[in-house]
C-alpha cells in the first residue's frame, strides 16, 4: 500500500513575503513582552531574596532559655508555672519521665537556628568571633540563564551546524542591580586643601578657558552644518545653568551672547508655522523631513532661550536669589543687562521671525526702567527698528504696546518713550522710495541681445516668460503698496490717539514737549476735521503760561505745520502765533543753551518762507529787523543760522532791501519795544547791526554780514561760496555748532592762564561771557585786563 502523500506543502518564499505586516508586528510584540516579563520576574525574585537576607541579619535572635537571667527570677517563674500546671500526683512516673525527655528535645528543635548565641552560652565561652559569621545564612550567587537567539544554521560537509547568539542585556539595568547588591561603603572625606588667592585666580582662568573652548566648538559645529547639528543648541543652552561659582557669571554671559549671534545667523528669512495633522501624516522625502526637524528644533530652542532671558530679567527686577546661591545679587544686574542687550539685538535683527511680539512685550516696559542705561538701550533699539522697518508691520506692533503701556501707567512714563515715535517712517515720499527698494525693476533683454544669443524657439519662450514676470511684478507692487498704506494709517491713528489723550488729560505732564514735537512732525497727516479744535488747544496752552520756552515753540511749529499742509483750504488767521514768536525771540541769548535756536529757525522757515503769499511786507520787515538784533546776542553758530535766515527772507521779499537805506520810507517812528510786528513801523529803521557783525571775531559771521550789507547778491565779489549759499539755515547752524567748531583766533602769545582761555575762542565765550558781562559791563565795572584788551584790538571786535 502506497504511503499517502502529504498534501500540506511548506509555504514558499513568495508566500512568506505576502504575510501581513500586522502579524509580524504582533509576533515581535509578543516576543518582546515575554522577554520583558521573564526579566521582570527574575528581578523580582532577586529583590525578594535580598530583602530576606537583610531581615535575617538585622533581626536579633531570641533564645528559648536566657542564661543571663538571675536564678531568683527563674525560681519564681518556675514556681508560677508549677502552680498553673497540672498536679504531678495525677500522672504516672513513666509519663512524667517521657515529658521531661520531650522538653529537652524541644529546646533544641524550637530555638532560632540563626541565633549567633547558643542556649548553653557558658559552655562555649571561648568561641571564636569568626564562628559567629559562619552561622549567618549565605547569599547564593545565582546567575541568570543567558537568553539565546537562534540564527540561521550553516551547512557543512559534516552536516547542519546550528547557530546561536546571546541576547544583549541592558547594561544600565545590570549596573543598577549591582549597585543594589553591593553593601554601602563608608565615605571617607579627605580634607580640602585651601588655595591661595593667586592659585585660585590661575585655576579660575584655566576653567574659564576650557569653557570658552567648549562654547566655541559647539558654536562652530552649529554654524558649519545647522541642520545636522541643531541638537547641539540644547547642549549650548544647558550651559546657561552653569553651577561653578568661580565662572558661573562669565560663562552665562558668554553663552547668552553666543546663542544670540547663532540665532541671528541660522534663522531663516521666513516665519515657521506649526504643521497640521494632514501634513504630519503625509509621506515626504528625506530632505523635507530633515528640514522639518531642523525648523521644529530651531523654534523650540529659540523659545526656551527667550524664556531664559526673561527669567534673568525677572530675577534681577525682583531681587531674587536662587537657592543654589551660585550667583550673587550684585551679579544679577550684569546678567540682566546682557540679557536685555540680546533681546534688543533680536528685536531689530529678526522682526519677521517667531515670537517677535513676545520680545516687544518684554522690551517696552524696560523702556521706562529706573536704570538709565537699560532704558536708553531699549529706546535706541525701538528707534532703530522704526527706521529700518519698510513695510510697517513690526512698527505697528510696537506702537500698540507702547500706547497701551502709557495709558495703563496714567501717562507717568519717561518722555523718551514717546520721542521714539519721531523715528517712524510714515511720509509719502519714503513709501514710494521703499516700494522701489523692494521691487527693483529687472532689466529685460533687448531684441538685438536676444537675436545674438538665443535661437528662435528660445526667443519665443523668453518673450512669454517676460510677459508673465511683468504681470506678476505689477500685482505684487500694487499689493505691497496698499498693505503699506493700510499699516501706516492704522499706526498713525494709534499715535494721534495717544497724543490727543495727553493733550486733553495731562497738559502739565513732562510728556507734553514730546507730544508737541510729534504733532509738529506728523501734522500734515492729521485729518482736517481736527484742525480747528487742535489750534484752539495749542493757543490755550501758549496763553496759559505753564509751558517752557521750548514747549511754546513746539506749539507754534505744530500750528504752522497744520496750516501749511491740508490747512491751506481753511480760512484761519494765525496772527496770534506770529505775535507770540516775535515777542519771545529775545529769550534766546549767549548765556542760555542753543536748544531752542534750531526750533526757531524751523518755525521761521514754515511761517515766513513757505507761507510767503499770506505774509505782509510789514511783518517780514519786522522779523528781519528783530533777527538782526538777535544775532548780536547769541553764540556764533546761532548767529550764522539767523543771518542765513535773513538772507533767504531778503530773497523771498525783495522789497525789504529798503532796510539797507538810512532814509525813512513812511510816517511814524520805529517802535522796537512793541510786540506787534504789523504796527512797529519797521520800514522806518535800518539794519545797523550788520555793521557791528561785520567786525565779529568769527570769520563766517563777518562773511554773512558783509554779504547782507551788499544786498545778498548771487554773483560778484560779495556773493557767498557754494558751500554756504546752498545749505539751509538749520544745516549751517548744525555744521557750526559748538561741538564741531575748532576756531582759534590769532592772538599774541602770552603765558597767562587768562590768555589761554581767550585763545579757545567760542569755548571761552560759552563759559565766561556771562561773568565778563557782569564784571566789566555793569555800573561799577572794573577796567578790562591787558590781555583781554589786546584780544579785542587784534580781533577787531
Task: Describe what you observe in this structure.
The protein is an all-alpha fold and 797 residues long. The protein is built from 33 helices and 2 strands. Strands 1-2 form a two-stranded antiparallel sheet. Helix 22 runs antiparallel to helix 23. It starts with 12 loop residues before the first helix and ends with a helix. The C terminus is likely disordered.
Could you give a short description of this structure?
This protein has helices spanning 13-17, 21-58, 71-84, 93-109, 130-134, 171-181, 197-224, 232-237, 248-266, 277-281, 286-317, 331-349, 356-366, 372-388, 393-408, 415-419, 428-438, 447-453, 456-505, 512-522, 531-544, 549-564, 575-584, 595-609, 617-631, 636-652, 689-693, 699-709, 722-725, 729-735, 753-759, 762-776, 786-795; strands at residues 148-155, 160-166. The chain is an all-alpha fold and 797 residues long.
Helices, strands, pairings?
Blueprint: H1 13-17, H2 21-58, H3 71-84, H4 93-109, H5 130-134, E1 148-155, E2 160-166, H6 171-181, H7 197-224, H8 232-237, H9 248-266, H10 277-281, H11 286-317, H12 331-349, H13 356-366, H14 372-388, H15 393-408, H16 415-419, H17 428-438, H18 447-453, H19 456-505, H20 512-522, H21 531-544, H22 549-564, H23 575-584, H24 595-609, H25 617-631, H26 636-652, H27 689-693, H28 699-709, H29 722-725, H30 729-735, H31 753-759, H32 762-776, H33 786-795
Amino acid at each position: 500500500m502506497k504511503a499517502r502523500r502529504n498534501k500540506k506543502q511548506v509555504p514558499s518564499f513568495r508566500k512568506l513575503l505576502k504575510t501581513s505586516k500586522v502579524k509580524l508586528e504582533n509576533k515581535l510584540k509578543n516576543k518582546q513582552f515575554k522577554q520583558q516579563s521573564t526579566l521582570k520576574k527574575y528581578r523580582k525574585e532577586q529583590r525578594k531574596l535580598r530583602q530576606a537576607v537583610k531581615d535575617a541579619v538585622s533581626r536579633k535572635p531570641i533564645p528559648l532559655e536566657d542564661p543571663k537571667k538571675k536564678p531568683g527570677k527563674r525560681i519564681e517563674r518556675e514556681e508560677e508555672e508549677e502552680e498553673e500546671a497540672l498536679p504531678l500526683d495525677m500522672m504516672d512516673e513513666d509519663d512524667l519521665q517521657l515529658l521531661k525527655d520531650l522538653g529537652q528535645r524541644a529546646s533544641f528543635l524550637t530555638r532560632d537556628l540563626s541565633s549567633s548565641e547558643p542556649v548553653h552560652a557558658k559552655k562555649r565561652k571561648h568561641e571564636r568571633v569568626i564562628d559567629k559569621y559562619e552561622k549567618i545564612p549565605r547569599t547564593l550567587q545565582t546567575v541568570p540563564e543567558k537568553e539565546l537567539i537562534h540564527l540561521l544554521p550553516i551547512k557543512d560537509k559534516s552536516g547542519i551546524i546550528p547557530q546561536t547568539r546571546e541576547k544583549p542585556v541592558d547594561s544600565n539595568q545590570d549596573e543598577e542591580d549591582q549597585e543594589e547588591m553591593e553593601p554601602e561603603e563608608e565615605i571617607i572625606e579627605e580634607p580640602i586643601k585651601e588655595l591661595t588667592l593667586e592659585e585660585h585666580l590661575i585655576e579660575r582662568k584655566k576653567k574659564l578657558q576650557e569653557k570658552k573652548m567648549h562654547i566655541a566648538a559647539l558654536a562652530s559645529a552649529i554654524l558649519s552644518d545647522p541642520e545636522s547639528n541643531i541638537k547641539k543648541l540644547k547642549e549650548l543652552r544647558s550651559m546657561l545653568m552653569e553651577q561653578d561659582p568661580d565662572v558661573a557669571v562669565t560663562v552665562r554671559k558668554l553663552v547668552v551672547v553666543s546663542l544670540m549671534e547663532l540665532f541671528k545667523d541660522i534663522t531663516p528669512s521666513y516665519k515657521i508655522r506649526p504643521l497640521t495633522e494632514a501634513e504630519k501624516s503625509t509621506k515626504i522625502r528625506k530632505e523635507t523631513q530633515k528640514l522639518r526637524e531642523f525648523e521644529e528644533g530651531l523654534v523650540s530652542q529659540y523659545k526656551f532661550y527667550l524664556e531664559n532671558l526673561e527669567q534673568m530679567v525677572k530675577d534681577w527686577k525682583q531681587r531674587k536669589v536662587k537657592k543654589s546661591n551660585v550667583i550673587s545679587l550684585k551679579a544679577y544686574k550684569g546678567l540682566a543687562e546682557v540679557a536685555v542687550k540680546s533681546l534688543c539685538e533680536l528685536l531689530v535683527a529678526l522682526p519677521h521671525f517667531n515670537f517677535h511680539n513676545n520680545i516687544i512685550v518684554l522690551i517696552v516696559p524696560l523702556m521706562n526702567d529706573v536704570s538709565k542705561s537699560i532704558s536708553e538701550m531699549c529706546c535706541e533699539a525701538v528707534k532703530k527698528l522704526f527706521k529700518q522697518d519698510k513695510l510697517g508691520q513690526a512698527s505697528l506692533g510696537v506702537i500698540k504696546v507702547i500706547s497701551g503701556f502709557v495709558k495703563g501707567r496714567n501717562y507717568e512714563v519717561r518722555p523718551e518713550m514717546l520721542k521714539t515715535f519721531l523715528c517712524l517712517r510714515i511720509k509719502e515720499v519714503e513709501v514710494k522710495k521703499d516700494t522701489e527698494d523692494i521691487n527693483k525693476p529687472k532689466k529685460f533683454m533687448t531684441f538685438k541681445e536676444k537675436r545674438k544669443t538665443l535661437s528662435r524657439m528660445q526667443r519665443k519662450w523668453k518673450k512669454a516668460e517676460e510677459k508673465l514676470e511683468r504681470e506678476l511684478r505689477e500685482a505684487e507692487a500694487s499689493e505691497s503698496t496698499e498693505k503699506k498704506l493700510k499699516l501706516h494709517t492704522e499706526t498713525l491713528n494709534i499715535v494721534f490717539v495717544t497724543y490727543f489723550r495727553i493733550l486733553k488729560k495731562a497738559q502739565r505732564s513732562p510728556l507734553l514737549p514730546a507730544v508737541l514735537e510729534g504733532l509738529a512732525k506728523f501734522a500734515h497727516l492729521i485729518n482736517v476735521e481736527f484742525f480747528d479744535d487742535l489750534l484752539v488747544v495749542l493757543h490755550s496752552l501758549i496763553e496759559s503760561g505753564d509751558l517752557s520756552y521750548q514747549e511754546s515753540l513746539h506749539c507754534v511749529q505744530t500750528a504752522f505745520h497744520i496750516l501749511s499742509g491740508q490747512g491751506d483750504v481753511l480760512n484761519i488767521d494765525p496772527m496770534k502765533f506770529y505775535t507770540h514768536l516775535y515777542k519771545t525771540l529775545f529769550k534766546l541769548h549767549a548765556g542760555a543753551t542753543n536748544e531752542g535756536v534750531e526750533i526757531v529757525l524751523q518755525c521761521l522757515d514754515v511761517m515766513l518762507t513757505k507761507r510767503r503769499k499770506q505774509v505782509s511786507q510789514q511783518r517780514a520787515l519786522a522779523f528781519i529787523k528783530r533777527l538782526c538784533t538777535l544775532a548780536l546776542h547769541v553764540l556764533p553758530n546761532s548767529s550764522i543760522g539767523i543771518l542765513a535766515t535773513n538772507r533767504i527772507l531778503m530773497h523771498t521779499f525783495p522789497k525789504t532791501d529798503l532796510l539797507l537805506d538810512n532814509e525813512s520810507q513812511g510816517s511814524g517812528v520805529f517802535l522796537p519795544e512793541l510786540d506787534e510786528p504789523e504796527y512797529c513801523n519797521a520800514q522806518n529803521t535800518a539794519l545797523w547791526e550788520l555793521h557791528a557783525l561785520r567786525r565779529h571775531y568769527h570769520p563766517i559771521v563777518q562773511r554773512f554780514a558783509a554779504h547782507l550789507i551788499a544786498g545778498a547778491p548771487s554773483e560778484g565779489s560779495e556773493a557767498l561760496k557754494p558751500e554756504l549759499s546752498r545749505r539751509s539755515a538749520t544745516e549751517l547752524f548744525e555744521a557750526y555748532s559748538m561741538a564741531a567748531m575748532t576756531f582759534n583766533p590769532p592772538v599774541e602769545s602770552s603765558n597767562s592762564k587768562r590768555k589761554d582761555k581767550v585763545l579757545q575762542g567760542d569755548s571761552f565765550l560759552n563759559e565766561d561771557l556771562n561773568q565778563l558781562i557782569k564784571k566789566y559791563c555793569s555800573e561799577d565795572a572794573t577796567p578790562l585786563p591787558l590781555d583781554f584788551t589786546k584780544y579785542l584790538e587784534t580781533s577787531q571786535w
